Amino acid sequence: MNDIKFFLWAAGWLFILLLAGSCKSANESRAPVALTWEMGSYDGNGKYYENSFVLKNVSDAPIGKDWEIYYSQFPRSIRQDASSPVRVEEVNATLFKIYPGEGFSSLAPGDSLKVIFQCDGEVPKNSHAPEGSYWVSQSGASKGKPLPVTLHAIPLPVTEWQRTAARKTYETNLRLLNAETPEFRTTDIIPSVKKVLTTGGETVLEKQLALTFHEDFTNEGKLLKEKLTAWHGLEVVPEASVTIVLDYLSDRKKAVNEEYYELCIDGQQIRISAATPHGVFNGTQTLLGLLKGQESPFRLEAMSIQDYPDLLYRGQMLDIARNYTTVDNLKKLIDMLSSYKLNVLQFHFSDDEGWRLEIPGLEELTAISSRRGHTTDEKDWLYPAYDGGYDPYAATSGNGYYTREEFIDLLRYAAERHVQVIPEIESPGHARAAIVAMNVRYKKYIDTDPEKAEEYLLSDLQDTSRYVSAQAYTDNVMNVALPSTYRFMEKVIQEIVAMYKEAGTPLATIHLGGDEVAKGAWMGSPLCRALMEEQGMEKAHDLAEYFITRVADCLQQHHLSFNGWQEVALGHQKDTHTYLSQRAAGINSWKTVPEWKEDEIPYQIANNGYPVILCNVNNFYLDLAYDAHPDEPGHFWGGYVDESKAFSMLPFDVYRSSRTDMAGNPVEIGSAGKGKTTLTASGRKQIKGVQAQLFAETIRGFQWVEYYMFPKVMGLVERGWNAHPDWETLSGAAEQQTFDRDLALFYEKISVKEMPYWSRIGVNFRLPHPGLTIRDGLLYANTSIEGAQIRYTTDGTEPTVESELWETPVACQAAVVKAKLFYRDKQSVTSCYWQ
């Protein structure tokens, strides 16, 4: 199965077949209509674009006026001529409805009707087209029962980016292929080790080896044994010609930090030593990395390695609220991340579109808000979102939650691999799932037990505030004046603390969210107005400050610090900054896109005394698409991010971390930080780490989690461990030359060591599209991936494994050349060259 299995190509055009929900059986009936969606041109102002749905009656009976069709798409405003016989309107943020207007009479069998309307925004990606459509009839045998609708999305027209991308990719690849890199060695792993001293000779590992370890490192020994056997076929026996020893450093004072380790390969012994179990674990991952790219017998140079990370926080945030993934999948991911020495998982389990963690005593959170399906009132579950699934019981990425027992088990699994799990309670914004659940609870008990009904209520029933959130919700902000809001937060915190205690894993901090509270929230709430008057508050920000301070106090009672997105550390009074900075464990600072003119925020926060986790949009937001190709899924609001952009990030010089602008054009990095905030000596100490983010609006299954992460996350892996690359202090041509050398070696590591490893253990990953150019009538092609094949066509058809193999320049006069990269069972998105 290839990477882009949700896309089907035919006759040179991409037709996306999206089925709403999950069919319970192959014989489930379908709706009597089929839909075809097409995006048209923009209006004169470039703000609104034309849409059209073609409804076709595929049944043998006329269709009357008693129906509705729902579909999902990213938020957008709709304009439509009032005379249209079929109406299109927003239901809720990402859910839309098509229904008969006054001018609609019926649609005969086989007939079609074109519905035209306008939307604001952009659709530069086929993954942003409407999806998940379903039909609901008000009469007949299927009355009230949602039925899936076949939806064809006609692919987007060719863009200017496509016309130049293949050539630009060719030039970039050529630059890297021509870079002067040292001879590739087994010690070239990701992340790079700090210091290697080769001593001559080698150690050979064949079928068996022995393993001994200090009793304090029993866990690390067990995990190493499992990997040696499962991934490399090496049997661990009591006695063998080669022995691996896990032990303490003879001089623990040598440890630069708690993750420092030493690895010595000398004759028939491989010794890994450290001052802590975490350090020993890191050493075992390095040993496993040395074995990658080899087959038995494995040959290891005699050497001595001294290694440690520059940053002690190296994290990955995964959003399972918007699109759920199972515990087993998350364990697989934790295992992968820890193998690259990442040590934090930010567990984003709650948001507007879902609540994914069981909280005893608040059953509605998972009974209501862990499911999405067709509803008109959300009494039983949430509206469909993103994936468009109409069945709240289907095994889709829209449905599911972790039981208390599953989460405790996950915590233990992560702790064994030295991964800290930081739970994130999105508040006070991004809280719609919790708000809806507590509203259902209120209605359930208000007539019989008013006190219980109001105990955990999150919304002021008299609130007339009007606002629209960044994701187009109008009801997703907790009311910060309600005492019940704080009872809710305290209840959730108490239950999370109890889970960690039962798991036997330390809990030092809880992430409180704090981001993107929409302008206008709270201003129509009598309770908030009364609180503002009572506390002498002047603006809405004062309410947000009140909330975060009060919840931080709650955490303090449990001996916990707090984490939050950058908004929780902005705009406060001096005393509040002092108070909060002393209670913060990490502030996730993300707004680093130069064009936004706010890329100084991370350093401003650090200089203000807060511990900062760098989460740069333009380097570490993995949900941003790899590039602008319409077939490449993902977001585009912050530009595009691939593994090279993650690799180029400089934690202590963020202004030089963007080598291109949002459109991909090169920038002058030498002057990028001119006149901007610099880190003070104290601020420099507050840069605690780096973290990648994977928000899940475009995720439709775990294979896409892997696709977005690998190889993109590898840049963060490298930079979190080695925060000061050789090119950090260089400038001009020397800087570019050294950067190209390091980037070329980075790609060589990925293709020689990591991709074969990912293929063997069943990890989905993305292949870049090949570079193409035509010079003097000859077709040239290239790629940075060793072992991959470039196959091409000149007749407009999509390349397959049977297409012509490019090996050397060939004569070519074709108007368009299409090429793909093929590697084992995978293929890239198509690369096109137009003459």
Helix content: 25-40%
> What is the overall number of helices?
19
- Can you count the beta strands? 37
Low-confidence stretches: 1-27
Tell me the overall shape. globular
Largest sheet: 8 strands, parallel, barrel
Strand order of the largest sheet: 20-21-24-25-26-27-28-29
Distance between the termini: 32 Å
Describe the structure.
Helix 2 links the parallel strand 14 and strand 15. Helix 4 runs parallel beside helix 6. The relative contact order is 0.10. The chain is of the alpha/beta class and 835 residues long. It contains 19 helices and 37 strands. The strands form seven sheets. Strands 20-21-24-25-26-27-28-29 form an eight-stranded parallel beta barrel, surrounded by six helices. Strands 1-2-12-3-4-9-6 form a seven-stranded mixed sheet, with no helix packed on it. The N terminus is likely disordered. Helix content is 27%, strand content 24%. The two termini are 32 Å apart.
